[in-house]
Amino acid sequence: MTMNRPSFKVTSDKPGSDVAGEYAAAMAVASIVFKDKDPAFSIKLLNHSKEIYTFGKTYTGLFRDSVKGAGYGTSDYKDEMAVGAGMLYLATNNSQYLTDAESFHQHGNQWGQSWENKYTASMVLLYQITKKDVYKQDIETTFGNWLPGATGPSAVPYTPKGLAYRTKWGSLRHAANQAFLALIAAEAGINPTEYRNWAKSQIGYILGDTGRSFVVGFGVSPPTHEHHRAASCPVIPATCSHDFLDMKYPNPHILYGALVGGPGQNDEYDDVRTDYVRNEVALDYNAGFKAQWQCYADVPPVPGGGIGQAPGFRLAKLEMFSI
């Protein structure tokens, strides 16, 4: 690609605690993953995680306020800092990080796990660590509004075919992300049967239980015109341009495993490349979805072998919290 790709940074004068919390969490998770396989690299990651977290805690502020025009920005940084602190506690066993995580967390019902709001992740993480009833209450209140039959202004509506429909833009990613966290809550002992059955229903919808798949290269009538630049460009050495956005033929490259945005509130969906609301592919669309099916794929086939005991589940769980 020949277009400009500028980089941005946060500083003590122009802070970004939301960005710092994200990176601190990701590096803390990675340090756990590499602890036995590559101890030197693990230590390097953990040191950087600590430094970045301290920076975010010392110089508080939002990325969107400090770096104008740099892309999406969140309205709060405490959710990212809560997850970052929680992951650092798991990586270090330093109680100060746990104290910080609990102070950053916001109690009560939450909208759902997304790039804008990660309090669902922090409540599940903090319950796993502390087993305190206050976090269990947060979880049950939030998921009580996501499961079928909920009433009231915070209840998530459902499509006729059973998708938990939080919003039109990337409808599947919200259901997938929330379903993944439901599995982790179930692993922690909170309403395990109900939460696992609900998560299974959402991934089933995504994979095609209701008649079509929303995963590129998989199942019945999968998307073939997903809104994705590299997949829609012709095979090299042919050149690519914006004109290919409007081409009617399927994408030349199959983006296997990619989850598209998803249907409308009445399950309507057209596989059209220009529809970036329903047919775009994005990292946060695929994060919870990939972690969720990894959970099921790695369930050990032994009596009493819980889904949470599978190696892939534990690794995916850590990775998802850092998204």
UniProtKB/TrEMBL annotation:
Alphabetical keyword list: Carbohydrate metabolism, Cellulose degradation, Glycosidase, Hydrolase, Polysaccharide degradation
Domain Glycoside hydrolase family, chain residue ranges per copy: 1-289
Any one of the GO BP annotations: cellulose catabolic process
E.C. designation(s): 3.2.1.4
Reaction(s) catalysed (UniProt annotation): Endohydrolysis of (1->4)-beta-D-glucosidic linkages in cellulose, lichenin and cereal beta-D-glucans
Origin: domain of life: Eukaryota
Top enzyme class: hydrolase
Catalytic residues, chain numbering: 271, 280
UniProt-listed InterPro entries: 6-hairpin_glycosidase_sf, 6hp_glycosidase-like_sf, Glyco_hydro_9, Glyco_hydro_9_Asp/Glu_AS
GO molecular function per UniProt: cellulase activity
Span of the signal peptide: none
Family: Belongs to the glycosyl hydrolase 9 (cellulase E) family.
Annotated protein name in UniProt: Endoglucanase
